[in-house]
Amino acid sequence: MSTSTSAWQRFRNSDLLFYFKKDKVAIGAAIIFLIMVIAAVTAPLTAPFNPYDLASIDVMDSTLPPVWQGGEADERFLLGTDNQGRDMLSTILYGTRTSLIIGLFAVLLQSVLGIAIGLAAGYYGGRIESFLMRLADVQLSFSTLMVAIVVSTFFQAKLGTEAFHEVAIYLLVIIIGISEWPQFARTIRASVLAEKEKEYVQAAQVMGFGGLRIMLRHILPNCLPPIFVIATVQVANAIMSEAALSFLGLGMPETTPSLGSLIRSGFEYLLSGSWWITIIPGLVLVVLVLAINLLGDWLRDVLNPKLYKEI
């Protein structure tokens, strides 16, 4: 009890919370992001309809406008319906959840790969560092989208469209995760090069601790602040990558809502007047990515002592 109390007390007195309460932009971004996450997580409970339940979808309800448009609008569908007759509000809630899952797990994979490679390169140096960093340079020479398009096209050709759609969410996590690990690796390597020259690392080496223990238990905890910042930005990038791939038809299928697949499904109807099928999910994507990026900018400023502002 005393441990949890002291931990809570330390958090209440921390610089992180102090600067957060002073930054209105960060508070606003955090509130928006939290609302969107809660809405996405609770989609099965809060969504008016289940977009996966074919029995509840009527094709005769397709492309109905939002309720404020009047005319053919149906009060059951607050944001209208898409070309398949699905409720837009429900598909956006489910689609946001899918996009967040892909973004979070892709960044988790990126961080695991990048941290492991960056630690090894920075700590051992020499040929190991040279090889791993040249590997990172080669990876960075290819754009994330280009790598994702090539790999997605390959798997779609090998597995077939139906099989690809069944495992699309897993493949997107792997593709986006593998494409972006150098960002973490280069940052961790730079931090390790600075940390390994400090006395606490030399003391651990003198005591006979192995390299793996020194890296994980002594060096890594002191390299985490920049990792948190990169992870925040990379979540936004991963969500955008998923949206771009789904829009190109190489990501989530239209039958499985994600923000990218929703934008793609209504694109051909955009000029015919059914703007809400594309525009509303697009606005949700913009707001979600903007909120994450604003939080990342604030976190970068707070965790970097050189950027602290006197308040």
TrEMBL record:
Pfam families: BPD_transp_1 (PF00528), OppC_N (PF12911). GO terms for biological process: transmembrane transport. The chain crosses the membrane at residues 25-45, 100-126, 138-157, 163-181, 223-253, 273-296. It comes from the Bacteria. Its main location: membrane. Keywords: Cell membrane, Membrane, Transmembrane, Transmembrane helix, Transport. It is found in: Cell membrane. It is a multi-pass membrane protein. GO terms for cellular component: plasma membrane. Residues 96-296 form the ABC transmembrane type-1 domain. PANTHER family: ABC TRANSPORTER PERMEASE PROTEIN, OLIGOPEPTIDE TRANSPORT SYSTEM PERMEASE PROTEIN APPC. Belongs to the binding-protein-dependent transport system permease family. This is ABC transporter permease. It comes from Spartinivicinus marinus.
